[in-house]
Write a structure and sequence with these properties.
Layout: E1 2-4, H1 8-21, E2 60-70, E3 76-81, E4 87-91, E5 96-100, E6 106-111, E7 123-131, E8 134-142, E9 147-155, E10 162-163, E11 167-173, E12 184-186, E13 192-196, E14 214-218, E15 235-238, E16 242-248, E17 254-259, E18 264-270, E19 296-299, E20 305-311, E21 314-319, E22 325-329, E23 335-339, E24 347-352, E25 357-362, E26 378-385
Parallel strand pairs: 1-2
Antiparallel strand pairs: 2-26, 3-4, 4-5, 5-6, 7-8, 8-9, 9-10, 9-11, 12-13, 13-14, 14-15, 16-17, 17-18, 18-19, 20-21, 21-22, 22-23, 24-25, 25-26
Length: 388
């Protein structure tokens, strides 16, 4: 494995490919029934998936070549590219939104107010909607009372890029010191998907009326779509413990990674209204027809999964406790492989750059890792097709 520590040209290349990979998704008809009413109406830019559906086909794997795009990030949690302006990173404990520009320069463009960083809580997932001058940044974070999602207009460009005033999207999500979920992504349907942890109320992950232990689906204003599986509810799937990764394949298949308890971490294919079994079952070996089994599982010491991305036919999964990058090939019986074991430390998020490479952030400064010189780091990971 080779690691290069300077990367101005590489980050400019990554930004250019992200611009080419962006695509506009259709907007289905939906109702205006809200799970938690937004404080004010928000102009909706054209919906753009957070994780652009990758046009590549076939399996991919890392070549072992890593390029460091930015160093000295503080407990980074989520990657959110913003076109030609660069890449946004959320810092969990400082509540800062950090921009890595195409020249590799790093600066905070604003902070998120009201964040209570405690345990696994703080400023977590980010997602960007729209492009050009009509862009909004969505952020999931923990307060003293709840988890919530807000959105900010992104104003200016380049050196003047900054956050406008916040608008609430959904509030009142269960919180705890652990199991806060926190991933955001716009799907191919242009709707916002939100992962929530069970907030240490494990039995309530089976309760559709409880918004913890779920994957939620709303529009950009927090309204519930008419075709959600449970009437007037943002709940899209249930029976989750602590899901922290969601992404879509080119055919629209939705994948989600989930922290297990003591036995199995999981990779699931998400279907609307489906029940994934927590806390009644964990892992693949269940004959209970009420629950959908994962397509892959790992011992918790090997994975502790967080962010995921899809490139071609391959799902890439960040491993925190496992300190490695996993790949899953759903077309080959969900075959799994591991990369970079013990070399980068904890890996928090991955993002498809759209050119057959990945963006990846480490997470060694979150209080559970062993920070190394320059941690935490945003990397570009070179991939190669393994077809034929």
């Amino acid at each position: 494995m080779s690691v290069r520590r300077t990367a101005t040209a590489s980050i400019a290349t990554a930004v250019a490919m992200l611009l080419l990979a962006g695509c506009e998704a259709p907007r289905p008809e939906r109702t205006v029934t809200t799970a938690t009413p937004p404080v004010a109406a928000t102009p909706e830019p054209s919906p753009t998936p957070t994780e652009a559906v990758d046009p590549l086909v076939g399996p991919y794997s890392p070549t072992g070549d890593l390029t460091a795009l930015a160093n000295d990030l503080a407990a980074p949690w989520s990657i959110a590219p913003v076109g030609a302006d660069g890449i946004l990173i959320s810092e969990r404990d400082s509540a800062q939104i950090v921009l890595i520009d195409p020249a590799g320069q790093k600066r905070a463009i604003g902070g998120v107010g009201g964040v209570a960083a405690n345990g696994e809580g703080g400023l977590l997932g980010l997602a960007v909607q729209g492009d050009g001058t009509e862009r909004r940044l969505f952020a999931y974070f923990t307060t003293a009372d709840d988890n919530r999602v807000v959105s900010f207009p992104l104003t200016g460009t380049g050196a003047s890029l900054s956050l406008g005033p916040a608008t609430e999207v959904i509030t009142g999500l269960p919180k705890a010191s652990n199991h806060n979920g926190g991933r955001l992504a716009f799907g191919p349907d242009g709707l916002l998907y939100i992962t929530t942890g069970d907030a240490n109320q494990r039995d309530r992950a089976q309760d559709v009326g409880y918004l913890g232990g779920k994957i939620l689906r709303v529009d950009a204003a927090g309204s519930v779509p008419a075709d959600n599986p449970f009437a007037n509810s943002p709940v899209y799937s249930l029976g989750h413990r602590n899901p922290q990764g969601i992404a879509w394949g080119a055919d629209g298949t939705m994948f989600a990674a989930e922290f297990g308890q003591d036995t199995w971490d999981e990779m699931n294919i998400i279907e609307p209204g489906a029940n994934y079994g927590w806390p009644d079952v964990e892992g693949i070996d269940s004959a209970d027809a009420r629950f959908v089994a994962p397509i892959a599982q790992w011992a918790t010491d090997d994975a502790s999964p967080s962010g995921i991305a899809v490139v071609g036919d391959t799902v890439f999964m960040a491993g925190l406790g496992g300190e490695r990058l996993w790949t899953i090939d759903p077309t080959e019986g969900a075959e799994t492989r591991e990369y970079f074991a013990g070399r980068l430390g904890r890996i928090r998020d991955v993002y498809s750059a759209g050119d057959g490479s990945l963006l990846l952030i480490t997470n060694n400064t979150d209080g559970r890792g062993e920070p190394r010189s320059g941690d935490d780091t945003l990397y570009r990971v070179t991939l190669a097709s393994t077809s034929g």
